[in-house]
Write a structure and sequence with these properties.
about 290 residues; about 50% helix; 15 helices
Length: about 290
């Protein structure tokens, strides 16, 4: 019956709320008895549990675990994002980050905790800040099995985006799209040893989405989460290897999508920049 209480694990309710960054007061405005659910004095009905799971962006099954799952907090995986920048992430993006984490938990539940890819690219290819970008781009292209000729045969960016997402899925990377409602955010990735995820802003141009896929792929190969924005002012505040990683991610995306030789041919008399790099696909289509 809809009014029957479901005996879930109380500690999971508090864990889920705190992990989502929701205060007890804010949660109580939506769920008046959540304090009782957290201390085991009462339990939610199944419809309430579904609503709570959606609110906290967690699978329903999580609330039946014997104890909170041992997974790192989202913030802890963003090694190259300064603390002050992370704290300023807008609420909409924080919601999508929690949604992405929920997807990771769902994927683990659906697959028995094992990535369905034959070989996971983030394990197969090792990188560090001294890695040669051109060599890395070549290695990634060989791993995912898409030649430059095949890439340039795709008739438009819509086809290219679908093909790249399919190729990344075969390499063990799950990609999702959503309306970020904030144009300055192009996408982000969440690293996980088994289920790395890339999220792109569905409102961005297709060419920008493609660039974001490979900027974030580089982050994942460094085993770090990342956020791609239209401006990279925060990079100047990074130090040491973290700054090098962020710079390398942009360089890798540009080098992968159009290797240096093709870049030089396509970009004759054009100033090199990230903005022009994201438009390379259009330039190449115009030359076909």
């Amino acid at each position: 019956m809809a009014t029957e209480q479901i005996p879930i694990t109380p500690a999971l309710v508090r864990w889920g709320r705190e992990r989502a960054g929701v205060t007890a007061q804010a949660a109580a405005e939506r769920f008046p008895r959540i304090e009782d659910w957290e201390n085991g004095a009462a339990f939610p009905t199944y419809p309430q549990l579904e609503q709570l799971a959606e609110y906290l962006k967690l699978p329903v099954a999580v609330f039946f675990f014997p104890e909170p799952p041992s997974v790192p907090r989202i913030r802890e995986t963003f090694r190259t994002l300064p603390e002050q920048e992370y704290e300023h992430i807008p609420r909409r993006i924080r919601l999508l980050l929690r949604k992405a984490k929920a997807f990771q938990l769902n994927l683990a539940e659906l697959t028995g905790g094992r990535n369905p890819a034959r070989q996971l690219i983030t394990r197969a290819l090792s990188v560090d800040v001294s890695t040669n970008v051109q060599q890395l781009a070549t290695a990634v292209r060989e791993f995912i099995g898409v030649s430059l000729e095949q890439q340039f045969s795709w008739q438009d960016p819509d086809v290219a985006l679908k093909q790249w997402r399919d190729a990344l899925y075969r390499a063990g990377i799950f990609t999702f799209k959503d309306a970020f409602e904030l144009d300055e955010y192009s996408g982000f990735c969440l690293f996980d040893e088994e289920f790395p995820i890339i999220y792109v802003n569905n409102s961005s141009t297709k060419t920008r989405q493609i660039f974001t896929l490979f900027h974030e792929l580089a982050h994942l190969m460094f085993h770090t989460s990342g956020i791609d924005t239209l401006t990279d002012e925060f990079v100047a505040h990074l130090q040491g290897d973290n700054q090098k990683i962020e710079v390398l991610c942009n360089r890798f995306a540009a080098e992968f999508l159009v290797p240096t030789a093709a870049f030089n041919a396509a970009m004759a008399d054009r100033a090199p920049s990230e903005a022009t790099a994201t438009g390379l696909t259009d330039i190449l289509y115009q030359r076909k």
